[in-house]
Automatic annotation (TrEMBL):
Family recorded in the similarity comment: Belongs to the CutC family.
Signal sequence annotation: none
Name of the protein in question: PF03932 family protein CutC
Recorded superkingdom: Bacteria
Main location: cytoplasm
Keyword line: Cytoplasm
Location of this chain's protein in the cell: Cytoplasm
A Pfam family this chain is assigned to: CutC
Cellular component per GO, a single term: cytoplasm
Alphabetized InterPro entries for the sequence: CutC-like, CutC-like_dom_sf
Gene Ontology MF annotations: copper ion binding
Gene that this sequence comes from: cutC
Keyword Cytoplasm: yes
SUPFAM superfamilies: CutC-like (SSF110395)
C-alpha cells in the first residue's frame, strides 16, 4: 500500500484551517504567495499552531527573485531557520543557488545543520538549477528529505517526464513533491503515468473583499492586481485531491 502525501501552500490562518479541514497532511506556510512566497511571520505561525495541530513547514525566502543570496540575506535566512526550529515548526523549505545555476552546497549544508531535527525541503530553487540530476544527488548527500519540483517547467504537467525520472532516481532516499498547477485532475494523471506519491497544491479560490468603500485610482502594490480580491485555500478543492489519493490507496 502506497503512502501518499498532500501538502497545501498557504499564507493565512484562514487558508491553513481550510487546508486542515480538507484533509491536507501538512502545510507549507509562507507570506505573499502571489509572488511565489516569502518568509512568513512568527506571529502567523503561532496563530495557526494555536488553532490547528496540522504539520507546518515554513517556507523561508528573504525576498522575491532569484535564489543567489548576499551574505546579509543568508544571515537572515539562517536566523529564520533557527527561529522556526525554536518555535517548534515541523520543517523548513529553503534553497540557495550559486551564480552558475548549481546548488550552493556550502550554504545548504549550514541551513540543514541549523535545522536540527526538522524536516528540510529543497524548494523550487531546484527548478532553476542547471542539472536536476546532479542537484538531486547533492540533496541526498546533504540529508535533505524532500525536493519540491515542477520538473523544470512552469507547471508540473509540462514537467511530468522529468518528474517521472526524478521519482525513479530518488527511490526511497528522498521525497519528490510534485508542485505547480496541481489539482485533483492533475494528481489523477500523475498517478496513472508515474510513481509519484507526494503532491503540493494551493487549492485556492478568489474571494471578493468585504470592503464596501473602494478607493479608485490608488494601488498599494502591482497596478494590474485588484486590492479587493483575496486568494484563499478552499477546503473543497483540497478534499477533492484527498479523495483521489484515498481512492488510489484502496
Amino acid at each position: 500500500m502506497k503512502d501518499f502525501v498532500l501538502e497545501c501552500c498557504v499564507d493565512s490562518v484562514e487558508s491553513a484551517l481550510e487546508a486542515d479541514k480538507g484533509g491536507a497532511d501538512r502545510i507549507e506556510l509562507a507570506a505573499n504567495l502571489i509572488i511565489g512566497g516569502t518568509s512568513p511571520s512568527i506571529a502567523l505561525y503561532n496563530e495557526i499552531r494555536r488553532q490547528s495541530d496540522i504539520k507546518i513547514f515554513a517556507l523561508l525566502r528573504p525576498r522575491f527573485g532569484d535564489f543567489h543570496y548576499t551574505e546579509n540575506e543568508f544571515k537572515i535566512l539562517k536566523e529564520e531557520v533557527a527561529m522556526f526550529r525554536d518555535a517548534g515548526a515541523d520543517g523548513v523549505v529553503v534553497g540557495c543557488l550559486n551564480v552558475d545555476g548549481t546548488l550552493d552546497v556550502e550554504k545548504m549544508e549550514e541551513l540543514v545543520k541549523e535545522a536540527g531535527d526538522m524536516h528540510v525541503t529543497l524548494h523550487r530553487a531546484f527548478d532553476m538549477t542547471k542539472d536536476p540530476f546532479e542537484t538531486l544527488e547533492q540533496a541526498k548527500k546533504l540529508g535533505i528529505k524532500t525536493i519540491l519540483t515542477s520538473g523544470h517547467k512552469n507547471n508540473a504537467l509540462d514537467g511530468k517526464d522529468l518528474i517521472k525520472e526524478l521519482v525513479e532516481k530518488a527511490g526511497d532516499d528522498i521525497e519528490i513533491l510534485v508542485g505547480s498547477g496541481v489539482n485533483a485532475n492533475v494528481i489523477k494523471e500523475f498517478l496513472a503515468d508515474t510513481n509519484a506519491t507526494s503532491f503540493h497544491m494551493s487549492g485556492k479560490v478568489t474571494l471578493d473583499s468585504k470592503m464596501e468603500y473602494r478607493k479608485e485610482g490608488v494601488s498599494m502594490g502591482l497596478p494590474m492586481m485588484s486590492e479587493y480580491e483575496i486568494c484563499q485555500t478552499s477546503a473543497e478543492k483540497i478534499r477533492e485531491a484527498r479523495e483521489v489519493l484515498d481512492n488510489a490507496r484502496k
